[in-house]
Structures are given as structure tokens and as C-alpha cells.
Design a protein that fits this description.
34% helix; globular; alpha+beta; single chain; 184 residues; Aminopeptidase; 7-stranded mixed sheet
């Protein structure tokens, strides 16, 4: 079954702030509830994390070049509705690792994922990354096609492919270039 593309929505993306621990928790629990097979953490484990850990995670990812969470908001009506999230980590010297990408199913195919990957890539380019690596659950064909439209290719061998296989995931990679964001 082919799903129709939604009209692009007006999205704003921002880096998480130190005060966003509760919002990070909410988004993580929403993502795990909606797609439990897509992440390396269970809903129960995430729900059991103390608030102090969520605050510490938000604070650690709010500045510097080691890690960053980006949150997408519907920039339409009230700008407070969070519709997506992505985590990016630095793997020295020059690789950005994308984790925990999630877009609310009500707005998928509306450009939110593309904007989140753009924010992650821009952040990575700011510290000199030359490529982005991510993992997607094998069999999640819509996600694989989405990443391929953004210029990612599947990785068949090497450490990233092997680490993904251990979790039932496929590694994908893309260089950081302006042409990587060609139109779908």
C-alpha cells in the first residue's frame, strides 16, 4: 500500500535546552509507545528513568559538540506542539551518528523528518563531520526509502554494518554535502 504524501507543514526545529528534560521524556515515551520495535530501549525502561536523568540528558545535549537532541515543532497555530525528535552524537574525528529519529505518525510525509535530518547534519558540519551514519530496523521499508531519498545508502560491510546487524538493524551512510539534500 502506498501512502499519499502529506502537504509540507510549517516546522521549526530547535536544539534542546537544559530545561527540556520533561519534554525529552515525553517525546521518548511517545516514540517508544508508537514504535517499540524501532528503538534499542523499551517503554518500561524509559518510563522508569528518574526525572533527574532526563534533565541531565537534556543538559548534556544542549550545548557543545559531543551530542545534540533536536526537537521539531509545528510552527503553525501555537508553536508548542512537538512533532519529532532526533539525537545526533559525535564519533571522533569526523562522523555524526544519528539515533532515535522519530516523527509523529500524524505528520509523517510532511517534511518533518527532512528538517530534522537537516538540523542534525548542519550541527555535524559545524564541527567538521564529513559523513552521517544511522541505523534503521531491517524491514522498515518506509524509513529505508525515506533515508534513501535524502541520499543515504546501505552499508553492507564494516563495523557500522556489523553493529547494526547485532540489533536487527541496517546501517546507512551519507556524506555531508549540499547536494545530499536533493528533492525527493
Amino acid at each position: 500500500m502506498r501512502r499519499a504524501k502529506m502537504p509540507a507543514m510549517d516546522v521549526c526545529v530547535r536544539r534542546i535546552t537544559a530545561a527540556d528534560g520533561p519534554l525529552l521524556r515525553e517525546l521518548r515515551l511517545r516514540s517508544l509507545s508508537e514504535a517499540p520495535e524501532a528503538f534499542g530501549q523499551s517503554l518500561a525502561d524509559a518510563a522508569a528513568r528518574p526525572d533527574a536523568e532526563w534533565r541531565a540528558e537534556a543538559k548534556a545535549a544542549s550545548q557543545g559538540d559531543r551530542r545534540a537532541w533536536f526537537i521539531a515543532h509545528d510552527a503553525g497555530a501555537d508553536r508548542t506542539t512537538s512533532v519529532g525528535v532526533v539525537l545526533v552524537r559525535r564519533r571522533p574525528p569526523d562522523v555524526a551518528l544519528v539515533f532515535s529519529m522519530w516523527v509523529d505518525p500524524r505528520v509523517r510525509r510532511g517534511g518533518v523528518g527532512r528538517v530534522l535530518i537537516r538540523a542534525a547534519t548542519d550541527w555535524a558540519a559545524s564541527w567538521g563531520a564529513d559523513r552521517v551514519v544511522l541505523w534503521v530496523v531491517a524491514g522498515n521499508e518506509p524509513a529505508i526509502r525515506f533515508y534513501q531519498r535524502l541520499g543515504f545508502t546501505l552499508v553492507d560491510s564494516g563495523p557500522d554494518a556489523e553493529s547494526g546487524r547485532a540489533y536487527g538493524a541496517l546501517a546507512m551512510v551519507r556524506g555531508i554535502t549540499a547536494e545530499a539534500f536533493r528533492a525527493p
